[in-house]
Amino acid sequence: MAKPPTKELVVVRSTQVTEHMLRITLGGEQLAHLPEDQESAYIKLIFPQGESERPLMRTYTIRHQRQAEIDVDFALHDQMGPASRWALNAQPGDRILIGGPGPRKLINPQADWFLLVGDMTALPAISVNLAELPANATGYAVIEVTSESDIQTLDHPEDVELHWVINPEPDPEGRTLVSRVKALPWLSGQVAVWAACEFNGMRALRTFFKQEREIAKSHLYISSYWKLGQSEDGHKLAKKQDSEQLATVV
Question: Where is the FAD-binding FR-type domain (predicted)?
């Protein structure tokens, strides 16, 4: 299948959602070429680097989609990459190339209860997933944020408990989220899991979900959105190597 053509979008406004989360609203004529119902789908922000160099591409989630606008949320870290620096300095009228959208990553709705886990980079996608759960859904969402001021008000079913984990420093061993998940009372019945976070945290969660809880592949979505100390290219390489290593395990 051919990739969707790139689109040039225009910055409409910038909104500080929380202390470390910045929302950029994009619009423009070419937004009309974006399919409907793309909240939680990913797009690629494209930053040209000159005629002889490949452009930099950074992956982000569509948080909201309206008829003439989309919102893209940026987690702001001390060490900023090209996308977060661009977002921090973006002004109405600025233009940005995007690729995509890629497929939506939604939790399996055929389950008795639901567990969503992630850090601030996954918060936009978790927010969409929570809002799309049935009103009678039960379960948990465990969300790691940088500070208490980064806790957001999220639309979610009444019986899905939100557990906010305050962690100002990234955990190089990836144990912060898995420790909180392990402390949750495990509910009865079939669980569907959606999890995304830093690479090492993803691996720790994956071990717990696959080996300790033996969750079926059909009911488990797990991914890493970034890797501590690495650029997006370095993260992609680590994911490739991790996938190849998994493939050799009998």
Answer: 4-108
